[in-house]
């Protein structure tokens, strides 16, 4: 069965600190992987996506993610978090018009 | 280009009623997908329409239905509303191939009383 697991429901980091959000997936074929961010009351905004090729993917707002096939992981990283990064982050797997999402990780940023 | 728009943004209904939500995709996009977001179940895929045909379907009861028009606009209908249907309903549009990104609208917040 296709599934996505985000083990951390809530993470708090200090502004300026580094960030890593974890994502593990189960998918029968070569996965297409995504990270989206959602601010309160808003829709989802795409941060980055992986289809093939280089396993380190750069996204918007200084985010990057690394695809590790052997670990079935697609972790999101940012070297220095800003207060405006506080939001909920969703990892997703899928193709075409059907995405399967993880439960999300809520990020809080301490001043 | 204008983004994905959804109307209405907020809706309050009572149990047993039906509701129709509308989604206008980004110009040129032929695929529209619908998702339900709740605190308990998270983001769940409802269905996808491509060129007026349902191409993918999630695991929701038949009370949830949709359609797509020739201009790619899509509507989602929920009949015989239940309290558990209270959710944020998000639609997303894309060009329609496997590798295309889905762009999400702001959602319609449905409250069932």
Chart the SSEs and their pairings.
The complex is a heterodimer of chains A (111) and B (113).
Chain A: E1 3-5, E2 10-14, E3 19-21, E4 24-26, E5 33-38, E6 44-50, E7 56-58, E8 64-68, E9 73-78, E10 87-95, E11 98-101, E12 105-110
Parallel strand pairs in A: 2-12
Antiparallel strand pairs in A: 1-4, 3-9, 5-6, 5-10, 7-8, 8-9, 10-11, 10-12
Chain B: E1 5-7, E2 10-13, E3 19-24, E4 31-38, E5 42-50, E6 53-57, E7 64-68, E8 74-78, E9 87-94, E10 103-104, E11 108-112
Parallel strand pairs in B: 2-11
Antiparallel strand pairs in B: 1-3, 3-8, 4-5, 4-9, 5-6, 7-8, 9-10, 9-11
Describe this structure in words.
The complex is a heterodimer of chains A (111) and B (113). In chain A, strands 2, 5, 6, 10, 11 and 12 form a six-stranded mixed sheet that branches. Chain A is an all-beta fold and 111 residues long. In chain A, strand 5 and strand 6 form a beta hairpin. Chain A contains no helices and twelve strands. The model of chain A has no long low-confidence stretch (mean pLDDT 93). Chain A is globular. Chain B is 0% helix and 53% strand. Chain B is built from no helices and eleven strands. Chain B has strands at residues 5-7, 10-13, 19-24, 31-38, 42-50, 53-57, 64-68, 74-78, 87-94, 103-104, 108-112. In chain B, the strands form two sheets. In chain B, strands 2, 4, 5, 6, 9, 10 and 11 form a seven-stranded mixed sheet that branches. In chain B, strand 7 and strand 8 (74-78) form a beta hairpin.
């Amino acid at each position: 069965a296709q599934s996505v697991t985000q083990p951390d429901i809530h993470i708090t980091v200090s502004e300026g600190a580094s960030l890593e959000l974890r994502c593990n997936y189960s998918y029968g074929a070569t996965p297409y992987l995504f990270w989206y961010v959602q601010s309160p009351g808003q829709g989802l905004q795409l941060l980055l996506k992986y289809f093939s090729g280089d396993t380190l993917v750069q996204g918007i707002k200084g985010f990057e993610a690394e695809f590790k096939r052997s670990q079935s992981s697609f972790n999101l990283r940012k070297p220095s978090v800003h207060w405006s990064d506080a939001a909920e982050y969703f990892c997703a797997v899928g193709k075409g018009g059907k995405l399967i999402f993880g439960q999300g990780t809520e990020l809080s940023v301490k001043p | 280009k204008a983004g994905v728009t959804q109307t209405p943004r907020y809706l309050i209904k009572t149990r047993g009623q039906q509701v129709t939500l509308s989604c206008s995709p980004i110009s040129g996009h032929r695929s529209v997908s619908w998702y339900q977001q709740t605190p308990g179940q998270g983001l769940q895929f409802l269905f996808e329409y491509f060129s007026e045909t349902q191409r993918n379907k999630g695991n929701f009861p038949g009370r949830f239905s949709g359609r797509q028009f020739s201009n790619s606009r899509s509507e989602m209908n929920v009949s015989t509303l239940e309290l558990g249907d209270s959710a944020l309903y998000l639609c997303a549009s894309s060009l329609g191939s496997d590798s295309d990104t889905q762009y999400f609208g702001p959602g319609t917040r449905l409250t069932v009383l």
